[in-house]
Specification:
Layout lengths: L5 H16 L12 E6 L6 H16 L3 E5 L5 H14 L3 E3 L6 H7 L5 E5 L8 H12 L4 E8 L4 H10 L7 E5 L8 H9 L4 E5 L8 E3 L2 H11 L1
Parallel strand pairs: 1-4, 1-5, 2-3, 2-4, 5-6, 6-7
Antiparallel strand pairs: 7-8
Helix pairs in contact: 1-8, 2-3, 6-7
Length: 226
């Protein structure tokens, strides 16, 4: 049997990694108006990520955007989003209960896209998880993005993904890639779920530090790390 060259082995590894990472699905801007939910555990940077997405949609696509926050557990989160809404000159609605979501959406019905910042939930709290589901189920024509930190250890990452299985259809955003030791967690996440990757964030700057996932670039990093 002819032994494979180093180059051939590398090509096989690249192919398998690309297959494992799967498809990339950013926001589907073909079907607007729509509501976009950012969900995920505390401390992953949902609010900043939401501001980056809002700014990009305005700058790149010139969309009319509205903001909603349901993260009333942390005063700082509401204030942070209000600050971003003032800078970006966008309306923001604060929702305290999931049944108030309908009213907030109705008030922003003229907008192309409504971005919803949800409370950072402990993925181990079942009641909070049910509240998140109720909130998402209360509207139609939506997209859901699960925000994960690239710095999270694998056991916690797996636990978070398992706890969000009650949501059928979501895309994954990885934050704090600039703080992570490598890209391994991205591959780890794909072993736990078939849901597509969408964006990476690589710093605190709004709107610059966000990019659509580039699978080729991720594969290069993974090969370099091994």
């Amino acid at each position: 049997i002819k032994e494979k060259t180093e180059e051939e082995v590398k090509k096989i590894i690249e192919f398998n990694l690309k297959e494992s990472l799967g498809r990339v699905e950013p926001i589907d801007i073909e079907s607007i108006p729509k509501i976009i939910f950012l969900i995920g555990p505390t401390g992953v940077g949902k609010t900043t990520t939401l501001a980056k997405i809002a700014a990009r949609l305005i700058i790149d696509k010139n969309y009319d955007i509205g903001l909603v926050t349901t993260d009333t557990y942390r005063i700082a989160a509401v204030e942070q989003l209000k600050t971003y809404s003032e800078i970006l000159e966008l309306p923001v609605k604060v929702v305290y209960q999931s049944d108030e979501m309908y009213k907030a959406v109705a008030e922003l019905k003229s907008k192309d896209i409504i971005l919803v910042d949800t409370a950072g939930r402990s993925h181990k709290d079942e009641f909070q998880m049910k509240e998140t589901k109720k909130l998402i189920d209360s509207v139609n024509n939506k997209e859901v993005f699960l925000v994960l930190s690239a710095t999270t250890d694998f056991i916690t990452l797996e636990s978070i993904i398992n706890q969000y299985k009650f949501i059928d259809d979501y895309k994954i955003i990885f934050t704090k890639l600039d703080e992570a030791n490598g890209y391994g967690n991205i591959l780890n996440a794909k072993f736990c779920t078939d849901n597509p990757l969408s964006y990476f964030t690589t710093g605190q700057d709004v709107p610059d530090d966000i990019e659509k996932v580039n699978v080729g670039k991720v594969v290069e990093h993974l090969i370099e790390e091994n």
